[in-house]
Structures are given as C-alpha cells and as structure tokens.
Amino acid sequence: MLNRLHAERVLQEIEPQVTSATRILDMGGGEGYYAGRILALNQNANVTILDLEGGFEACRERHEHLIEAGRLVLEVGDARTYSTVRGYDLVMMHELLEMFDAEEKGQIVASAMAALRPGGWLVITKFRLSDDGLDPASSALFSMRMWMKFREAYLESDSETEDLVKQHPISDLRRINSSKTIIVAQKAG
Known about the structure:
Blueprint: H1 2-13, H2 15-20, E1 23-27, H3 33-41, E2 46-51, H4 57-62, H5 64-68, E3 72-76, E4 88-94, H6 102-115, E5 116-126, H7 137-149, H8 158-166, E6 170-177, E7 181-187
Parallel strand pairs: 1-2, 1-4, 2-3, 4-5
Antiparallel strand pairs: 5-7, 6-7
Helix pairs in contact: 1-3
C-alpha cells in the first residue's frame, strides 16, 4: 500500500510525460500498478510491461480487461538485454536498478535509451541515497540488504543514476525529489 502512495506522487510529478505518450514501456513492472494507473490517466496510451518469466501473475488477474483490449501487453524478457525497434515515447523503471551490479545497471539504462524514440522520455524512480551512500540511513541499510540478497547488487546514489543516463545522448535531465528520487531525461533527437 505504501508503494502505491509513492506511485501516485510519482505519476503527479511526471504527468506531462504520461499524458502525452501513446507508446509506453514499463521495464520490470510485472505487478502492473503503474501500467494500470497510466492507462486510466491516458486513454490514448498503450503500455508494454517487460519482466522476467513468472512476474505477471498479479498483473494478469488485476488487468485482464486491459490485456484483452490490447492496451496492455506483457512481454517476457530481461531488461539487461532488451532490444526493440518500436521507438517508445516513454520508458519507465521503478526501483529496478537496485537489484543489479554496476555493469548491469549500465546495460539496463542503455537498453532503455535504445528503446526510446528521439525526443522520448526516460523516467527512473528509486529510493533516495546521498553520494556518500549513508543518507538517509534507511536507504543505506536497504542498499546493504540488496548487496547481501542479490550478488553484488546495491542501491546506487542519485548522482550515480544520473551519471548512467548522461552516458547517452540526452537533451534534458532533471532530478525530482519527491517521496522518492525521480530522474527524468529526454533522449536527444
């Protein structure tokens, strides 16, 4: 329930990107909460959720009508190696990068940027973490937990996330400090 409150705040912050997009990719969004809310906010949108095999059970139950209507597509795949020629208007990642090591984080951001059309938007949400990795303490502890749970995974600092995005041609990048950190970047085009 707490994540849903965060999601509503995130969606308020990125409303211009959500309401202007028709083709949206949600990387790692298996549960489908963001997809369902986006499709309710934007009647012209179609969302593809990319997740690993077995990540869609709750989504299928919750959004069967959207799947049947063709507005929601569930695609099994790996964000590290995802490739498409579709050219999405918006690619979203919510608390995804924290489950991977530094190299894999770079691969995921590269896949997301490649999936965008020129002028499209990338939105990354994450738990806030200072450059020294210590603040807030709850995020530092979360990062340690990720390290122990998933081999060499960790919660990257907000600046590290921005640096991953800046490795690609972008025309706009901003950090929004809401209930979570939101990185919004526009692909150059």
